[in-house]
Amino acid sequence: QVQLVESGGAVVQPGRSLRLSCAASGFTFSTYVMHWVRQAPGKGLEWVAVISHDGNQKYYADSVKGRFTISRDNFKGTVYLQMSSLRTDDRAIYYCARGAYYLDYWGQGTLVTVSS
Amino acid sequence: VLTQTPLSLSATPGQPASISCQSNQSLLHSDGETYLYWYLQKPGQSPQLLIYEVSKRFSGVPDRFSGSGSRTDFTLKISRVEAEDVGVYFCMESVQFPPITFGQGTRLDIK
Fold this sequence. Notes:
heterodimer; A: 7-stranded mixed β-sheet; 11 strands; B: globular
């Protein structure tokens, strides 16, 4: 069955960097578009970034453009989110999700806390 | 922008419930599809897809869930609410993907 397992969440200081990973299994990873979506504690969902199946196209929410970078390794079946210049308002659970126009499977999420 | 109403809902088991999602733009794409989806986030879990393209139930979703609507106005209906349906319901659109936009969520609990 489809599984997405995020990791890498941590407590970091403002201005620092962090890399999240999402390991996929149970499907042909290299044929799927992948997303990152975040959810601040007790809040709604915010789309963050998307990467095409081959990694050649990447798009970002305005709130993270220039600070976050999405990438993927199709050999490892893993999608990444490199986050830099982290701000307190980046604090959230970060989910990876599979799909193009809609997200049919989601991971369980990894918590990023930005605090001094 | 997607606007959901109500923001919270207290439902009686066995009774129907509905949630509205209104968009400030038409979600009908030039390809003829309407890019509106519904998700349920159960307590402590990640969101799960219920409905795609307005009215199509995702694999494994009980038939008590149904979606309807067109262009800018959409509804998710639960024909007979069960205890396991508690959580937060989100609508989502991707007509101009990217980006993807979510509604603010509707919290459903059981009376």
